[in-house]
Prior knowledge:
Shape: elongated
Largest sheet: 3 strands, antiparallel
CATH class: Alpha Beta
Number of strands: 5
Low-confidence stretches: none
CATH superfamily: L1 transposable element, C-terminal domain
Structural class: alpha+beta
Strand order of the largest sheet: 3-4-5
Helix content: 40-55%
Number of helices: 4
CATH topology: Rec A Protein, domain 2
Distance between the termini: 39 Å
Amino acid sequence: MQAARNKGRIMYEDHHVMLFQDLSTDLHKKRRLFDDVKQRLRALKIDYGFIYPAKFRVFHEGKPHLFADPSSVDSFIKKLDT
């Protein structure tokens, strides 16, 4: 997936090919648990993203921080407010 992302547009016999990760319903539900903290991070203009399958990564002051659950992200955000 990363190679396809780096390549950009992929063509095969004059047809545009699109690749998507296959996320299970269970994995999608786990990622949805982070929706609240994602909204708060957006408001603070802090970059974030997922590492497959469901590790949450926050970029703050040039450093990545990894989290396994939304409550630990919430604690991190609260520390930023103080």
